[in-house]
Design brief:
heterodimer, A: 433 residues, mainly alpha, disordered N terminus, B: 550 residues, mainly beta, eight-stranded antiparallel sheet, four-stranded antiparallel sheet, 6 helices, 43 strands, globular
Chain lengths: 433, 550
């Protein structure tokens, strides 16, 4: 298999050939999983490096390269890239978070704390930040400080099981077992599936002399642990490694697309989004984004194709059917549009949009006008908006019921008095009276 | 200690002065080159990533010829399927000649086993006064009887302790019921066969698979029949019903009730603490005592284990080494059958997070009367550097100095040339190799030469070493418990056979005494119930105590 930008599931590519050549293909043809992973890793680095070459003054390009290195296990290069990003934009709290997490893994809690403090200065209300900071403070045996920031976190995230869990840990380390027990109890109340919290609850209950309760929780923990073990999937397969490598590159492509979009390099942006989908075909968010971008750029066949792919992946999604209907309408493919809206009504009979749009098709084509009236009435019944009244008015008019049309228009104007179209239509209908 | 020549200008004159490198109180100097030790470890690998390659091997420090000098026995791997060698690797015994010179006496001694070495224990199972050796291999295990003339005889079949064809781990001799002879505990790691062997990829690189893919095996407890043979009593002793991925093991009286309990560090699963009822029947109490899991209820990938009283409160604490991104755990013994994971609050895992940690020991390197921690490090994935540079295959070992205030400080960087060596270490042993009153270190490194570290610490306190011998047999009194008092200082220790990462060391108990220039009282509690008391003992000596001699 060769993954490149010219691949498109069914429709001809609209990316100019020049741009296709611009992104090097990833050769995965006939290779082993090991070789495929190596190729994907290399492609990730190449794309990341290309970003910093093309966008050298944008912090985001360096962040993306740094993240790529990190995911590939090359933390030294990652830090180098992140530092370049910070030199361009010192307000990047996300970069300090990456640095903090890395420092933790490297067993450098002092550095991690410095980074957390920086994040705190940039994003003082970021949920969960103080939890991470408290964890580092506890590694540094600064229990009082940890407790202080955790209480601050409770103001931001009062229902955070993790915050209570960490408070339990901090109090436990200070031998304040009763307070610890209170927070561990709150932890398992907020998150009853937190198996390990039962263990720690048992420990502090034991330490505070509540042996019976402690044994109860320890036994409970043991039973849950066995259940967790039975349900756990262990190991890491070659296919998972391949999937991980694909997702790493897919994530980078998606983020790189943002840079090119901002630079108005639409062709490369689209090529990157398409590559993302090839690497991560079940990524609905990217498919939707690509469909939307095609639409904005007027590439309706491509947008439609993408929506149809999404519909295959999520056949029960009424909004997807609405988009398919809308695109077909814009392309003058009324029969297909009709079919999509009918499906939408089947999937979401309580949504007025399907009835509304289908009625509009019949108005546009001049067929099934009595049915269109029923549809428009159903839309108004479900959702008495100005737009639905307006379509109902048009249908009444087409069916020769001028009085009902005027009546519906009055409703529309009442709901949206500033709408010139409604007023103009009303004037036209009433001028001959 | 290596010295640096620094050139400085003083009043226009170039002077060369000699200065010592910055060092802390503890200094461990790498003396491998001068030792004459040429042993080279092999894991028998050929790139196929068989899981057994990752766990070889331990070592033993013991005085095999009873000449008063501690000798060194290295375990070795052997060629696995697909590996071709011209000369079979074998275990190696080095006789200590004194003055840091060692002689390879493997062939003379008959200890050159060519099996796939994993764990070792030393104990005088036949009560004839000299130490015998048990090898826990991948494949048949071996019991070597010491003939008392510097040679050994393989008595495995006669003794009935070959344990079948399994992947072994640590082993320990202990007297489970106080009948005066040493029984044998044999830990097992996992089920392995070439037919079912698989590897996996990580970052596109072939790696060893996690042990969870291989079924864990129960351990074996052999009762010594007193006639040179053993009987497998794993079922009736309550051992066989527990299967874990056994690794390091240490047998110790954690609850101070006078009998020897068994602690096993299990890889990727909860640890086992087998509590002895005094009659050789055991109950697994890891969960209820709090030593099965880490503080957060997680199992660790336990590797090596050791025990020692780090806080001098009269109770044995336990240390368990583990995998990368797991803290090497310290369990404080609170008494009343309860342990507390104090890793974070004591700093006993400083520097270990990116490391894979193996051999471990509670050792008072500077004789200041509290036990420091030495932790052997080295990744098991030989290509980890290529896909995760937070860690590395070759790693520095870690030395944590006990502050005496219940905490540890990482002094690895300032503790001599021996702590700067970067290899992939496994088993490690601690003993006074030059009989100068401080504890030296021997490290077995995977796929490399070992490292011999001489203790050159300058600011050292007083010390006392004690060798405990049983009454009749005069064998090393495995399981005997010492309580030593000097002024307001109380120290405890026990004689263990098999400990750390599948290793054996420390038969002579070493006590650092700080400024105390006399030991006021020594109490020895022998297995079987006897107690001996000694008062006003001089420091700075190796004291041999025979049971019943007070």
């Amino acid at each position: 298999m060769v993954l490149n930008n010219s691949e498109s599931p069914s429709l001809a590519p609209s990316v100019p050939p020049k741009m296709v050549q611009h992104l090097a293909p990833i050769e995965l043809n006939g290779s082993t999983v090991k070789e495929q992973v190596a190729a994907l890793r290399e492609a990730s680095v190449n794309l990341g490096q290309r970003l910093v070459t093309e966008f050298p003054r944008q912090a985001q390009s360096h962040v993306l390269l740094g993240n790529t290195y990190r995911q590939l296990g090359q933390s030294t290069q990652a830090v180098d890239s992140w530092n370049k990003a910070l030199a361009l934009d010192a307000q990047r709290a996300d970069v300090y978070i990456y640095l903090a997490i890395l420092a933790e893994e490297k067993g450098e809690p002092e550095q991690a704390l410095d980074h957390w403090k920086k994040v705190l200065s940039l994003k003082p209300t970021l949920p969960g930040l103080r939890d991470s900071m408290a964890n580092t403070l506890m590694t540094l045996k600064q229990w009082d400080d940890a407790i202080e920031v955790l209480h601050e976190e409770m103001q931001i995230s009062p229902q955070s099981a993790r915050t209570h869990y960490l408070l339990g840990r901090a109090y436990s380390q200070q031998k304040r077992f009763k307070e610890a027990a209170t927070h561990y109890e709150k932890t398992v109340t907020l998150d009853p599936n937190w198996t390990e919290a039962y263990y720690e609850l048992a420990t502090v209950l034991m330490r505070s002399g509540q042996h019976e309760e402690a044994q109860h929780y320890r036994q409970f923990f043991s039973e849950r642990k066995q259940q967790d073990k039975a349900g756990a999937s262990y190991g890491y397969t070659e296919q998972e490694d391949l999937l991980k490598a694909k997702k790493t590159l897919a994530g980078l492509c998606a983020n790189a697309a943002d840079l090119y979009q901002a630079a108005h390099q639409d062709s490369i942006e689209l090529a990157l989004l398409k590559r993302t989908i090839i690497l991560d075909p079940n990524n609905l968010a990217i498919r939707k984004r690509l469909a939307a971008r095609y639409q904005v750029l007027g590439q309706l066949p491509e947008a439609l194709n993408e929506c149809e792919q999404i519909a295959r992946l999520t056949p029960d999604d009424p909004i997807c059917q609405m988009l398919i209907g809308s695109l077909n309408m814009r392309m003058g493919r009324y029969t297909r549009a009709e079919s999509a809206y009918q499906k939408m009504i089947e999937l979401a009979p309580k949504l007025s949009a399907g009835y509304h749009e289908l009625a509009k098709i019949y108005l546009k084509t001049g067929k099934n006008l009595p049915k269109a009236q029923n549809l428009a009435q159903q839309a108004v019944h479900l959702d008495p908006t100005a737009a639905n009244y307006y379509v109902l008015a048009l249908v009444h008019h087409e069916n020769g019921d001028k009085s009902s049309a005027i009546n519906a228009l009055k409703h529309a104007i009442q709901l949206d008095p500033g709408n010139q179209t409604y007023q103009k239509t009303y004037n036209q209908l009433t001028s001959g009276e | 200690m290596k010295q640096l020549i620094m050139k400085v200008f003083i009043q226009g004159t170039l002077l060369a002065i000699t200065v010592a490198p910055v060092a802390g109180d503890i200094c461990l100097t790498d003396v491998t080159e001068q030792s004459g030790i040429t042993f080279q470890h092999t894991d028998g690998s050929s790139g196929r990533h068989y899981i057994v390659e990752t766990v070889t091997a331990g070592l033993a420090l013991f005085d095999y010829d009873q000449d008063g000098l501690i000798d060194i026995y290295f375990l070795n791997g052997s060629p696995l399927k697909g590996t071709k060698v011209s000369i079979s690797p074998r275990n190696a015994l080095y006789r200590n000649l004194g003055r840091w010179r060692f002689q390879d006496v493997t062939m003379l001694s008959g200890l050159g086993d060519t099996g796939y070495g994993l764990g070792v224990a030393v104990g005088d199972y036949d009560n004839d006064g000299d130490p015998d050796v048990y090898l826990n291999n991948y494949g048949p295990n071996v019991l070597y009887r010491n003939n008392g003339d510097g040679t050994f005889t393989d008595v495995t079949i006669t003794a009935g302790v070959d344990a079948g064809h399994q992947v072994g781990a640590g082993a320990c001799f202990l007297d489970i019921e106080g009948d005066g002879d040493l029984d044998l505990y044999v830990a097992n790691y996992l089920e392995f066969s070439y037919d079912t062997h698989e590897t996996t990829l990580f970052g596109g690189y072939m790696t060893y698979r996690a042990p969870v893919h291989n079924r864990p095996l129960p351990d074996i407890l052999y009762r010594n029949n007193g006639n040179g043979t053993f009987t497998d009593i794993s079922q009736e002793a309550g051992i066989a019903k527990h299967a874990g991925w056994g690794m390091g093991i240490v047998c110790a009286d954690y609850d101070n009730d006078g009998d020897t309990d068994i602690f096993i560090g299990n890889d990727v699963a909860e640890n086992f603490m087998f509590k002895n009822n005094g009659k050789g029947v055991f109950e697994e109490v890891g969960l209820i005592t709090g030593i099965a899991f880490t503080v957060d209820g997680s199992p660790s990938a336990s590797m090596g284990v050791d025990c020692g009283d780090y806080d001098n409160d009269g109770l044995l604490d336990f240390k368990v080494t583990s995998y990368q991104q797991q803290l090497s755990t310290l369990y404080q013994n609170l008494g009343d059958d309860f342990f507390d994971d104090v890793t974070q609050k004591t700093g006993a895992a400083a520097g270990t997070l990116p490391m894979v940690t193996w051999g471990v020991g509670f050792v008072d390197f500077d004789n200041d009367s509290d036990r420091d921690l030495f932790i052997a490090c080295g990744h098991l994935q030989d290509n980890i550097d290529k896909y995760d540079d937070v860690s590395s295959y070759l790693q520095r070992n870690i030395l944590l100095s006990n502050t005496g205030l219940g905490t540890f400080k990482d002094v690895s960087r300032t503790s001599g040339s021996g702590m700067q060596v970067k290899l992939s270490s496994r088993g490690v042993g601690f003993d006074d190799l030059d009989n100068d009153g401080d504890v030296d270190v021997v490290v077995l490194n995977s796929r490399a030469k070992p490292t011999i570290l001489r203790n050159d610490s300058t600011k050292k306190g007083n010390w006392l070493q004690i060798r405990l011998k049983t009454r009749n047999a005069k064998r090393d009194a495995v399981g005997a418990h010492v309580i030593l008092k000097a002024g307001d200082l109380t120290l405890i220790d026990e004689v263990h056979s098999g400990r750390g990462y599948q290793s054996h060391y420390g038969t002579r108990l070493h006590f650092g005494l700080g400024n105390h220039d006399q030991v006021d009282r020594i109490e020895v509690r022998w297995i079987g119930g006897g107690i001996d008391l000694f008062e006003k003992v001089a420091v700075g000596q190796l004291l041999t105590i025979i049971e019943g001699s007070s």
